Amino acid sequence: MRILVTGSTGLLGKSLCPMLDSEGWQYWACNSKIFDVTNTKMVNEIMNKISLDFIIHLAGFTNIDQAEDNPEKAYEVNQLGTKNIANIAKKHNIPILYVSTDNVFDGTSDKPYKPTDATNPINVYGKSKLAGEREIIKATKKHYILRTSWLYGVGGYVDAMLTFSNFRKEISVVDDQIGCPTWVDDLSRKIVEIIKEQKPFGIYHVASSGSASWADFTKKIFEIKKRNVAVTSIDKSDFPRPAMRPKYCVLDNSEKLPAWQNSLEEYLTAKN
Ligand SMILES: NC(=O)c1ccc[n+]([C@@H]2O[C@H](COP(=O)([O-])OP(=O)(O)OC[C@H]3O[C@@H](n4cnc5c(N)ncnc54)[C@H](OP(=O)(O)O)[C@@H]3O)[C@@H](O)[C@H]2O)c1
């Protein structure tokens, strides 16, 4: 199995690539420095020269607030970049797996979103990722679109909170935004499973089971690691940011992952 992995240096890529190693699969791990997905000419030139069996497209412009300030860049990476990579899949007639986001929904639902529910993104990041989904669907039927949410792993939000707890004893965290905190290792394992089992092509929701607010999630981090930090719940409106966030973005977890509390415990137990 020869796999192209874009975005390999990101939070998810750093978890996934060692798992591809364990499977004995060959993969070409790329970041923006060695393979800029927005450079259409370079993408086509390189791809004409190599032979591939599968593409995992993780590269993305992922900073939600910066996307609001720089929509051209967000669309360039998330739509044009995805179109370029999808066209390689089409040309080589190979499957492509694209990781998308809960931000394609507006968050006004009161029940978990199913893959078939209507999308309606409320920020530039969500709109540009949805545009990426559409490029994939337009290019090839051999696609897996995995929507996930609130990823954490080495160097992410959970680690930042632990570092924070070394210096501060209180923090204010948003309590009226609900989602599914998801460990990158759980998602990576699911990606490997989908490839190995050759599951039917289509859109999947892949996030932890259950739901939490950022305040719930943060409290649990400190509880598990026994850090004495007081978490004060605040509303989104008390913490204005450039991008609007969907209020309720729980994904109907069609590809069951463990409960978020269990995965968080496992992640934190393995850390010193
Ligand atoms: N993090 C989340 O909570 C979350 C939630 C839902 C969905 N997702 C999606 O999951 C995917 C992976 O997310 P992540 O958190 O691992 O992202 P990340 O940590 O921000 O990493 C982004 C990756 O994309 C690469 N990249 C950015 N621009 C590129 C370009 N023009 N050409 C080639 N590579 C480029 C980066 O390379 P450099 O290192 O060179 O910059 C990096 O490897 C993304 O598509 C994201 O939209 C993430």
Description:
With 272 residues, this protein is α/β, with parallel strands linked by helices. It has a single domain (2-156, 180-210, 249-258), classed as Rossmann fold. 40% of the residues lie in helices and 18% in strands. The protein is built from 9 helices and 12 strands. The strands form 4 sheets. Strands 2-1-3-4-5-10 form a 6-stranded parallel sheet, with helices on both faces. A two-stranded parallel ribbon has the order 6-9. Strands 7-12 form a two-stranded parallel sheet. Helix 4 (71-92) runs parallel beside helix 5 (124-139). The radius of gyration is 18 Å and the shape is globular. Bound molecules: NADP nicotinamide-adenine-dinucleotide phosphate. NADP nicotinamide-adenine-dinucleotide phosphate binds next to helix 1, helix 4 and strand 4. NADP nicotinamide-adenine-dinucleotide phosphate binds at residues 6-13, 31-33, 35-38, 58-62, 77, 81, 99, 101, 129, 148-151.
* Domain unit count: 1
Q: What share of the residues does DSSP label as strand, in percent?
A: 15-25%
Order of helices and strands: EHEHEHHEHEEHEEEHEEHEH
Class by helix and strand content? alpha/beta
CATH class: Alpha Beta
Distance from N terminus to C terminus (CA atoms, Å) equals 36 Å
Give the proportion of residues in helices: 40-55%
What would the CATH topology be? Rossmann fold
Radius of gyration: 18 Å
Which strand order do you get reading across the main beta sheet?
Answer: 2-1-3-4-5-10
Bound molecules: NADP nicotinamide-adenine-dinucleotide phosphate
